[in-house]
Every structure is written in C-alpha cells, then in structure tokens.
C-alpha cells in the first residue's frame, strides 16, 4: 500500500518536462514564426466571426448561432496549448507542474469533445433546414439551440473529467519528460509506471463515443441531405444547400481526421514526431481554417463582412 502513495506524492510535486517542437535552426525558426502567425490569424479570425454574427441581425439564426459557438470553442481550444508552446520556445519554460498538466489535459479534452458534439449538432441543424424546412422554426427554436449548445459543453466536461481523473491516478515514478509539446493523454500515459492496458481500452471506448458516434450521425445526416438536395427542382436552392453543407463537411474532415488518428489507433502506430505534426494540425491549423472556410463559401457571412468594411471606410473618410 505504501509504494503507490509514494508514487502519487512524487508525481504530484515533481511535475513534468515538455518537449519543444523547435530548435534553434533557421528552418525551425521559420516554422515557429509560421505557427505564431497561424495562431494569431486563428484568434483574430474566430473573434471576428463571433463579433460579426453577434452584431449583424441578419445572422441571428440557429445556423450562425451554432457557428459562433464553434468559433468560441476554437478560440479557447487553440489557446490551451499554443501559448505554452510559444513561451517554452522563447523563454525556455518547458516545465509544467502536475496540477498544470492535469488542467491542460482537462481543458484540451473538454473543448475538443465539446467541438466534436457541436459539429454533429450543426449537421442536425442542416438536416432539419433542408429536409424539414417548414418545421425548422419549431425544431430549432432559440431554446432548443441553447439546450444543444449546453449539451455539447456538458458532454465535453463529462468526458474530460473522467479521462483526466483516470489518467492522473496512475503513478509516474520514472522519466518526467513528455515526448510532446503539451499534456495529451496518450503521451502522458507512456510515462506511467503501471499497466495502462485496461485504461487504454477505456480510452478506445471513449473515442468511439466521442468521435465515431458523432461521425456516424454526421454521415447519416448528410446522406439524407444529399437525397433531399437531389430531389430539389430549383438549381439555385440546390447550389445554396450544397455550398453550406460542403463548408461544414470540410471542417468536419479537418477536425475529426487527426483526432481519430490520435485517439483511435493503437500506440504501436504512433511516434512522437508524427504525433507532434498531427497535433499541430488540429490545435493550430484547423481553428485558423474554420472561419476562412465558412466565410468564403457563405454569401450571408461575406455580405455582412462587406457591410462592416463599408462602414469602416465611411467612418475613415468622415
């Protein structure tokens, strides 16, 4: 009984050392600069999307309300890991306390799972709008939208609470160096000096619930949407439906693909270098691309942007 307690006490005080993504070479300095630029664009783009949707009454619809929540999640999601990574490279702050590692792990999984659920709910919104347009105001009322968003946040919180508690209960008595630039569950588990096989099975089941169930829901929704679109007689209506849905499908593929690789494939398929590249993709690149994809393929959003830019131009000339 005494040994696990000593492991726990040691783990809770010693903390961990994160691995920097970059070294001092010119190529790595360039890549670091690109990550900083992409992170800045992600923050600015998603903040602009939220303000645009909240400020333009024409965008006060269920679809754009859910889109504003997606942008809000992306702001928090990318900020859980990237600022720490930037500080680690610039100032050498690569250590992280045991509690700090747990907090980073919790918020990363909380926001990631919430976004997975939200993307599935956005597919449901498109399904109702296209397949049952007359019932859309009732099925997607303001109260329903608020409940759907609350469900995504609650589901993400529940998932993160369970996984963080289970991960941190293992003893960490060997190496303190995490082969990753942030505290992600698979990377932290490699340092555990206990058999984690049973928990990895739990992690797989959680991945099925959080990743594959929403993917199946999205796939079914869009199969029904496609069937409804093909039955449309209006070419303009068909093009509008396909443009909106293609934007959402692009975001779904960008976000779910890397997560399935990280959390669904066995550990034998992973290597630290590959995990870093995949993690950068969904923690930095995808949050930056989301507002770009939705703004470029959406007439209402581009129209609202032109309206705001027009006001800014008038204000400057005045």
UniProtKB/TrEMBL annotation:
GO terms for molecular function: G protein-coupled receptor activity; olfactory receptor activity. One of its GO terms (cellular component) is plasma membrane. PROSITE patterns: G_PROTEIN_RECEP_F1_1. It is a multi-pass membrane protein. It comes from the Eukaryota. The chain crosses the membrane at residues 29-54, 75-96, 102-124, 145-162, 204-229, 241-265, 277-296. The keyword 4Fe-4S does not apply. It is found in: Cell membrane. PANTHER family: OLFACTORY RECEPTOR (PTHR26453). Putative odorant or sperm cell receptor. This is Olfactory receptor. It comes from Catagonus wagneri (Chacoan peccary).
């Amino acid at each position: 009984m005494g040994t696990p307690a000593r492991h726990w006490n040691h783990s809770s005080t010693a903390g961990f050392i994160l691995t920097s993504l970059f070294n001092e070479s010119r190529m790595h300095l360039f890549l670091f600069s690109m990550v900083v630029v992409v992170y800045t664009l992600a923050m600015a783009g998603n903040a602009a999307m939220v303000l645009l949707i909240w400020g333009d009454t024409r965008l006060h619809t269920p679809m754009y309300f859910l889109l504003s929540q997606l942008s809000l999640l992306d702001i928090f999601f990318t900020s859980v890991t990237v600022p720490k990574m930037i500080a680690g490279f610039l100032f050498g702050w690569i250590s992280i306390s045991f509690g700090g590692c747990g907090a980073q792990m919790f918020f990363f999984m909380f926001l990631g799972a919430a976004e997975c659920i939200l993307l599935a709910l956005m597919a449901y919104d498109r399904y109702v709008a296209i397949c049952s347009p007359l019932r859309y105001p009732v099925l997607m009322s303001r109260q329903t939208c608020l409940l759907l968003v609350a469900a995504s946040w609650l589901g993400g919180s529940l998932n993160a609470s369970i996984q963080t508690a289970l991960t941190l209960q293992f003893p960490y008595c060997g190496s303190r160096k995490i082969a990753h630039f942030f505290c992600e569950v698979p990377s932290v588990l490699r340092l555990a000096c206990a058999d984690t096989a049973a928990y990895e099975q739990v992690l797989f089941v959680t991945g099925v619930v959080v990743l594959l169930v929403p993917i199946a829901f999205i796939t079914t929704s869009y199969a029904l949407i496609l069937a409804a679109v093909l039955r449309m007689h209006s070419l303009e209506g068909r093009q509008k439906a396909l443009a909106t849905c293609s934007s959402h499908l692009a975001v779904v593929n960008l976000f779910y693909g890397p997560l399935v690789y990280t959390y669904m494939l066995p550990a034998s398929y992973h290597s630290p270098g590959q995990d870093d590249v995949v993690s950068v993709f969904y923690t930095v690149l995808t949050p930056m691309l989301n507002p770009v994809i939705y703004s470029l393929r959406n007439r209402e959003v581009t129209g609202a942007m032109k309206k705001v830019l027009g006001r800014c131009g008038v204000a400057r000339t005045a």
